[in-house]
Amino acid sequence: MARALRLLSRTVVRLRPLPVQGPTRGFSASVQEPFHVCVVGSGPAGFYTADRMLKGHEGAQVDIIDRLPTPFGLVRSGVAPDHPETKIVVNQFSRVAANGRCSFFGNVTLGRDVSLSELRETYHAVVLAYGAESDRSLGIPGEDLKGIHSAREFVWWYNGHPDMCDLSPDLKNTQSAVVLGQGNVALDVARILLRCKTELATTDIADYALDALCGSTIRKVYLVGRRGPVQAACTAKELREILGLKNVRVCIKEADLATSPADEEEMRSSRIQRRVYELLSKAASAHRDNSCNDQKELHFVFFRRPTRFTPSENGSTVGAVELEKTALKVDEVTRKQVAVGTGEFEDLKCGLVLKSIGYKSLPVQGLPFDKIRGVVPNLRGRVMSSESETATVETGLYVVGWLKRGPTGIVATNLHCAEETVASILEDDRKGVLRAPSDSKKHGRTGLVEILEQKNVHFVPFSGWEKIDSKEKMAGQLRNKPREKITTWDGLQKAANE
Ligand code: NAP
């Protein structure tokens, strides 16, 4: 135990009572006891929660656990390699991890290495911030054919996530890729397929992905939306970026740009939608220089929904996506325009399909979960026993990020989300809900270390991640990249232990 505790961050494991001031004044439990908080998941939602918790409660000791040996969640494995500016936030997260009252436990999986009930017994508050690590499915025939991947898998692959380093998408036997969905993730994957490889070479993209993309034969990427250009789910900045890619001809059918009174109404109430529509309209009519032989094509396909995948001649690989033409109809309940099939079908030939229709969260044992919405039922971050009106609060259990509100929003959205959840925790603590004066079972960090030792789990502390980090950065320097990511479980663990 002592050795394990020494391993933790470069940290002072402070178990002495801390002075209590400011926002924590008036909490009910004895000030002699630290307030033990465990955050599960070290992405933006997890780190913002830890930050706000440490700032809001001087007695708080915050442990962040993550199933990966590396911290930062989607900032490392979701944000596109050609968006380095979005990754700068890790500097702020690293300062949080360096706080003497914060510890990182990488390589620890909730539900396998430690159960939710064990965490709840060990900590005064448990905050689930493990996001959405699965995918929505279309539920149409042929979805299992080779050559069809979720965008999440493809993103994890090019970002060197150790679970997806062996994906090996076949980029060599086709000229056409179809991306289903028109959100920002769809734009990310389309952009990575189309972007000039010399531009990618100086990013932190995984080396095997860069090699595969350099050898890619894909010339045409189709971005398929079931609704129209007014409803495209992407945002203007990301759209502008893809529309401006070097050597890429953008193809948009003028007829798809016709708007209905309902579309006009939507654009009046959403500046983002109006801006996206304007950018698409401008791109449709823009004169493009066709002089370059190496030109690729980006096709925006609107009003089409996928109905099945058909195999190529070899039988097991995707050869086409069958699309049904759609029309928009106002839903009577939500008052939103939804796509309805017209009964008219067409095939779009391709050898690669990336389904970018949204991420999905997964429950763990003992956690109330709304399977339809894919979120944990909660009231301002407090986990509720169910969605029903008679639901009760799960004392000491909280949720934040995509698991709380569904898979939407940018990195910064998680700051407000974390502030709301932390406010609930602080309020509950002030009211004396979380700490009974006689409660001696909540050992926090020492309790977690004990559980992990009993189960022979070798966790990676923040100092282990720092070893990975410096090794990656050194390897990157040799290739003029910000880092060369270590992409296997073994490699990461070895680097953390060196
Ligand atoms: P998203 O924005 O929700 O987009 C999902 C897309 O899938 C929409 O076009 C949606 O169409 C479509 N779709 C859903 N179900 C479908 C179905 N059954 N059949 C056909 N199409 C379907 O999700 P996302 O792209 O995964 O992005 C997740 C979040 O991360 C978003 O908030 C995004 O802005 C954010 N993000 C931001 C950045 C950035 O800032 N650079 C980068 C990546 C991600 P409908 O609209 O018709 O439902």
Q: Secondary structure elements and their pairing?
A:
Elements: H1 2-7, E1 35-40, H2 44-56, E2 60-65, H3 73-77, H4 84-87, H5 89-97, E3 102-105, H6 116-122, E4 125-128, E5 134-135, E6 148-150, H7 151-158, E7 176-180, H8 184-194, H9 197-200, H10 207-214, E8 220-224, H11 236-243, E9 248-252, H12 261-269, H13 271-285, E10 296-301, E11 304-311, E12 318-330, E13 337-349, E14 352-355, E15 359-360, E16 378-379, E17 382-384, E18 393-399, H14 402-405, H15 413-430, H16 444-454, H17 462-478, H18 489-497
Parallel strand pairs: 1-2, 1-4, 2-3, 4-18, 6-14, 7-8, 7-14, 8-10, 9-10
Antiparallel strand pairs: 5-15, 11-12, 12-13, 16-17, 17-18
**Any idea what the CATH superfamily of the largest domain is called?**
FAD/NAD(P)-binding domain
What is the number of helices? 18
Q: Quick one: how many beta strands? A: 18
Any guess at the CATH architecture of the largest domain?
3-Layer(bba) Sandwich
Mean pLDDT, to the nearest integer, reads: 92
The helix-and-strand class reads: alpha/beta
CATH topology of the largest domain: FAD/NAD(P)-binding domain
Spatial extent as radius of gyration: 24 Å
Euclidean distance between termini CA atoms: 20 Å
Largest sheet: 7 strands, mixed
Description of the structure:
- With 498 residues, the chain is of the alpha/beta class.
- The protein has two domains: 35-133 and 361-458, 3-Layer(aba) Sandwich (Rossmann fold), CATH 3.40.50.720; 135-359, 3-Layer(bba) Sandwich (FAD/NAD(P)-binding domain), CATH 3.50.50.60.
- Helix content is 33%, strand content 20%.
- The chain has helices at residues 2-7, 44-56, 73-77, 84-87, 89-97, 116-122, 151-158, 184-194, 197-200, 207-214, 236-243, 261-269, 271-285, 402-405, 413-430, 444-454, 462-478, 489-497, and strands at 35-40, 60-65, 102-105, 125-128, 134-135, 148-150, 176-180, 220-224, 248-252, 296-301, 304-311, 318-330, 337-349, 352-355, 359-360, 378-379, 382-384, 393-399.
- A seven-stranded mixed sheet has the order 3-2-1-4-18-17-16, sandwiched between helices.
- Strand 16 and strand 17 form a beta hairpin.
- NADP nicotinamide-adenine-dinucleotide phosphate (NAP) binds next to helix 8.
- It catalyses: 2 reduced [adrenodoxin] + NADP(+) + H(+) = 2 oxidized [adrenodoxin] + NADPH.
- NADP(+) binds at residues 182-185, 226-227, 238, 409.
- FAD binds at residues 45, 74, 110, 402.
